[in-house]
Amino acid sequence: MYWQSATGRKITLAEGDITRVSADAIVNAANSALAGGGGVDGAIHRAGGPEIMRELDGIRAQSGGCAAGSAVATRAGKLPARHVFHAVGPVYRDGRHGEGELLASCYRKCLELAEEHAVETISFPAISTGVYGYPIEEAAAIALREVVRHLERPDANVRQVIFVLFGRNAYETYVKALTSLSQQPAP
Ligand code: AR6
Question: Is 45 exposed, middle or buried (0-12, 13-18, 19+ CB in 10 A)?
Answer without folding.
Answer: buried
